[in-house]
Design brief:
With 90 residues, the protein is an alpha+beta fold. Helices cover 38% and strands 17% of the residues. It has four helices and two strands; from the N terminus they run αββααα. It has helices at 2-11, 48-63, 75-78, 80-83, and strands at residues 23-30, 33-39. The protein has a two-stranded antiparallel ribbon with strand order 1-2. The chain starts with a helix and ends in a 7-residue tail after the last helix.
Length: 90
């Protein structure tokens, strides 16, 4: 499920080429963490930075909790990213 979510996030970026398709692999398992490697191609070398920014934005949107406007924020949702940061490493 996580591999599919990461692949879909990569495929939604306009800077990432559809062919060859982006690939995702789990590269390390350490305690409560799994490290993934996401590989993709861009039309030009200079557009790779934009692609990474778009990918991180997509991952952040997918990792953020969904709340309706009627829901009141709770400490669990407002402090979730402070307590458990999402780390992106090159």
């Amino acid at each position: 499920m996580t591999l599919e979510l990461l692949t879909q996030a990569a495929m939604t970026s306009p800077s990432i080429l559809e062919f060859p398709a982006p690939s995702v692999a789990a590269t390390a398992f350490q305690g409560d963490r799994i490290t993934y490697e996401i590989s993709f191609n861009t039309p030009t070398f200079t557009s790779a930075g934009d692609a990474v920014t778009e990918l991180i934005s997509q991952l952040y949107k997918r990792a953020s909790p969904r709340t309706s406007s009627l829901d009141r924020p709770t400490p669990a949702t407002t402090n979730r990213l402070v307590d458990f940061p999402i780390l992106f490493c090159p």
